[in-house]
Design a protein that fits this description.
Blueprint: E1 11-15, E2 20-25, H1 28-44, E3 52-54, E4 58-60, E5 64-71, H2 77-90, E6 96-100, E7 103-107, H3 111-123
Antiparallel strand pairs: 1-2, 2-5, 3-5, 4-5, 6-7
């Protein structure tokens, strides 16, 4: 005798307040397959995967699995302080950095110094992808 198992659909919920994605699947194999598809979609839309934090899968009701994907959209205060401390520690003479809300503003009279700061910041692992803009 055999038992038929009910197939439950996979759900993806987006919460704007978080912002986060909640994945709900039948088992961990399906959850991993959904993550693979989401990775391809994020890459196609140029969303950096470094800015997405996956939590560990947890058991939910009726033998299902749930996982949350937290999306980082800005630099938090701790990371901003670490970035400004890193820039000051590098010992650039005329480079100034300041935290402005959810971004770090770096100013210097020379473009070469700014490019050196960008190179040094890209060389470190900050746990997120940094974007650099010129607002002259």
């Amino acid at each position: 005798m055999f038992r038929l198992r009910e197939i439950r659909p996979t759900k993806i919920d987006f919460e704007r307040s978080g912002p986060k994605l909640s994945l709900h699947a039948q088992d961990e194999f399906t959850l991993e397959a959904v993550w693979q598809v989401l990775q391809q979609r994020f890459n196609a839309r140029k969303v950096p995967l470094l800015n997405i934090e996956r939590t560990n899968p947890e058991r939910a009701g009726h033998d299902t699995v749930r996982q949350e994907l937290k999306i980082k959209q800005a630099i938090d205060q701790d990371s901003a302080r670490k970035i400004t401390a890193f820039i000051k520690k590098q010992g650039y003479k005329k480079v100034q950095s300041q935290i402005q809300g959810d971004e770090v503003r770096v100013s210097a009279p020379s473009r070469d110094e700014l490019q050196a700061v960008i190179k040094d910041l890209k060389g470190e692992d900050w746990g997120m992808e940094l974007k650099f803009g010129n607002y002259r």
